[in-house]
Amino acid sequence: MSPQQKALLLSKKHGDFELGSRSIPSPGTGEVLVKVQSVALNPVDYKIRETGYFVTDYPAVLGVDIAGVVEELGEGVENFRKAIECKITLFFGLAHGNFTNDFGAFQHYTLTDAHFTAKIPPSQSFDSAATVPLGLDTALVGLYGNHFGAGLTPPWTTNVVESKTPIAILGGSSSVGSYAIQLARLSGFYPIIATASPSNEELVKDYGATHFFDRNLSGKQLKAAINKITDSPIGIIYDAISLPETQSVAWELLADNGILVLTLPASVKEDEGRGRKTISTFGGPHAPQNEELCTSSWAVVEKWLSEGAIQPNKYEVLPNGLEGIIGGLERLKSGQVSGTKLVAHPQETQ
Ligand SMILES: NC(=O)c1ccc[n+]([C@@H]2O[C@H](COP(=O)([O-])OP(=O)(O)OC[C@H]3O[C@@H](n4cnc5c(N)ncnc54)[C@H](OP(=O)(O)O)[C@@H]3O)[C@@H](O)[C@H]2O)c1
């Protein structure tokens, strides 16, 4: 029998999470086996349970934000092979997981795609690194993706000149919003206007927002406030929250021919004659439409993290290993988490 490991399993469609065991997978070509030290929780994890989207194979292992120790490399993965095989050094990696059981985060060992796995620099912990993958990829695809995004030029492929082009990011204290702010800074946008609760003003400015506004302002109030800081039309808005209320604020602000990037389906209607567009993004790097962009961005993730160009999210560690994820997802679902990523340690499961 192949070696077994503990995993948090979603028993069936719309079922309950329960602790179980399953075999440790072996890495195939282009894959990496990671001993999972830290995982971060995302809204998609409880939404999959509610909707049944993305997953077909039950019991299912969920979770896409992974940080851990690289244990084994499949064929064709040459990075760090010598170091690992000679046990010269441990290779710590962060990775974007996928919606199939061998590639899920909520277990002791998982496979990752080498293209979407990066080395964790010494300045970062497993916990901080785990807060990066989905939030960063979703912000990045929304801004730079040609299919699921606004198709802007990625700043890591060109010399960026600071411009007088404004951008607005709604929900700047959310994980996706925080990375959208940081990428907007790398892209040279100015001003970078962000909304959140007033208690998160410092956090959002620390990510790089140049102007902060209370998320409770109406579209009209926000527009009037923004008019005082820039004459330029707001041609691009990233609504990281994308609830009907934030979308209608964004629509009030968006200039003619502008683009509104959404993390959920559109609830505003695209308008005839003004040329404004909505794009619902999809942050999965494994999607064929995102593969090339995300392969190129994951190649610079280690550098971004070590230089501080991208700062991970603040986090809170949950108790009780994999089982702690269940309560964490309830807190996320009921909107009790603000400006923070919840992180769990699978190896601490009793
Ligand atoms: N399409 C995709 O591929 C994709 C990928 C990832 C996420 N998503 C979706 O994107 C959304 C955000 O995900 P996330 O992981 O970034 O969430 P998150 O970090 O859990 O979001 C929590 C934050 O949301 C903020 N917030 C809630 N309601 C708000 C509002 N009305 N206006 C402004 N801010 C508000 C809160 O801000 P304050 O506490 O400051 O008020 C809180 O800090 C979720 O719906 C998620 O499912 C989609």
TrEMBL record:
<dbReference type="InterPro" id="IPR011032">
    <property type="entry name" value="GroES-like_sf"/>
</dbReference>
<dbReference type="InterPro" id="IPR013149">
    <property type="entry name" value="ADH-like_C"/>
</dbReference>
<feature type="domain" description="Enoyl reductase (ER)">
    <location>
        <begin position="15"/>
        <end position="343"/>
    </location>
</feature>
<dbReference type="InterPro" id="IPR047122">
    <property type="entry name" value="Trans-enoyl_RdTase-like"/>
</dbReference>
<dbReference type="InterPro" id="IPR020843">
    <property type="entry name" value="ER"/>
</dbReference>
<dbReference type="Pfam" id="PF08240">
    <property type="entry name" value="ADH_N"/>
</dbReference>
<protein>
    <submittedName>
        <fullName>GroES-like protein</fullName>
    </submittedName>
</protein>
<dbReference type="GO" id="GO:0016651">
    <property type="term" value="F:oxidoreductase activity, acting on NAD(P)H"/>
</dbReference>
<dbReference type="InterPro" id="IPR036291">
    <property type="entry name" value="NAD(P)-bd_dom_sf"/>
</dbReference>
<dbReference type="Pfam" id="PF00107">
    <property type="entry name" value="ADH_zinc_N"/>
</dbReference>
<dbReference type="InterPro" id="IPR013154">
    <property type="entry name" value="ADH-like_N"/>
</dbReference>
